[in-house]
Amino acid sequence: MDNRRFPRTSREENLALTLLPSQSGSLDPADRLYLTTHDVSLAGISIELPAPIKPNTDVELWVALLEEHGTYHLYGTVAWCAAPEGQLLAGIALDLERADGRLWAAHFDDDGFFSD
């Protein structure tokens, strides 16, 4: 969590997260979780979890930003999962080249801060 490339903005946004199948697995609709963000950055999102998710798990996200900023379809990979201060969190490294990644990036200024 100390290797952050961009500044974090504390934001509680709603999102749907789907665990993507591994090469040998299949997608199960039960793998969709409805969660809340802990913070966001240009290249990542920290989410609150009810149960751990293994690092290197690929995920598909639908993030609904408040204040009429829209809903964004994103892809990423779980970078870490930990329980600092007793709250289970995971960091998702976003793939900004897929889906709405470039639209997501447009919400951040040149220094990587979220701009409303």
Automatic annotation (TrEMBL):
Any Pfam family matching the protein: PilZ
Ranges for domain PilZ: 3-99
UniProt name for this protein: PilZ domain-containing protein
Originating species: Alcanivorax jadensis T9
